């Protein structure tokens, strides 16, 4: 049962005792029976980004058909000779779903990172150590604001590049377009999703109406760029966007001076995947999120060594099991995901206390030019 799975540990050795500093409690999960759980795997062999030989840092999704590998599929004989690679892939995935049985579900996730935000610029300007210990805790520096950062003109250009690339794939490849859209509640993602999709020639039945989901937000680290704005602000700025059920008016998760742990982030990434897979019958989904959160969604085996009072925790295949793939700002990665419903409770995974972040008491010097 989910409630058992996320039972909190008592960690007596840590100074942090305030309940508010524990990782967020999950919202009720997907619609499969409580005694079952879902495992996710990245199905390899279809996208270059899944190949161990692909180098994320230099990979350009716009030079490579989003990374879709040129190959044949066992279902090609049912395809018209004029079909593009993406159309053949679409037919293959549809067939997988038709033949997969009721416990298996395939979806293709287009995971997009937001365009460059003012916080990205400030982190480069001040250098990561000074950013982490001092500047990131402030809303801005008087000339630049990075609390719930907006995207910069460069970030706008990156989102427009993504939009243009989608447009070219529509024309040249007849790419299957997202049937559902999801976004992080942070402003840089709300803006990026809008710039990427709102002007595309989308099918009437698949309009761009994203759902704002709390757990697609970035890892929460005490940095003001990880603190979201109110639901009212989001609604007023993006009136066509929908909110998931239970989305709170205020940000209830951000904690000044405390950082969510990777394991907690992976647990909530699993929760949001369960939520999406458990409630959305569509196959082609777009998610606009963040570098750290997409890395968490893609993470393979994550293990935390047993350490004294923390107890032994081993989380296997919690999320998608993809190779590490850090996206540059504005980049998109498609992933073919196989979800399997397994009888019985999931292996127990436990959240851990958020850690306090270390801060500098004085203004750190600017990095010296090298
Ligand atoms: C697939 O083949 C086409 C032409 O045959 C080529 O232009 C394209 O770069 C190839 N894509 C990949 C991902 O290898
Ligand atoms: C504030 O930070 C930006 C970079 O994010 C920098 O360009 C600007 O000069 C800084 N302003 C002040 C007053 O230091």
From TrEMBL:
InterPro entries documented for this protein: His_Pase_superF_clade-1, His_PPase_superfam, PGM_Phosphatase
Highest taxon of source: Eukaryota
Signal peptide per UniProt: 1-19
UniProt keyword annotation of Signal present: yes
CC terms in the record's Gene Ontology section: cytoplasm
This protein's UniProt keywords: Signal
One Pfam entry name: His_Phos_1
GO molecular function: phosphatase activity
PANTHER family recorded: ANCHORED PROTEIN, PUTATIVE (AFU_ORTHOLOGUE AFUA_1G10590)-RELATED, BROAD-SPECIFICITY PHOSPHATASE YOR283W-RELATED
Protein name stated in the entry: Histidine phosphatase superfamily
Source organism per UniProt: Amylocarpus encephaloides
Taxon lineage: Eukaryota, Fungi, Dikarya, Ascomycota, Pezizomycotina
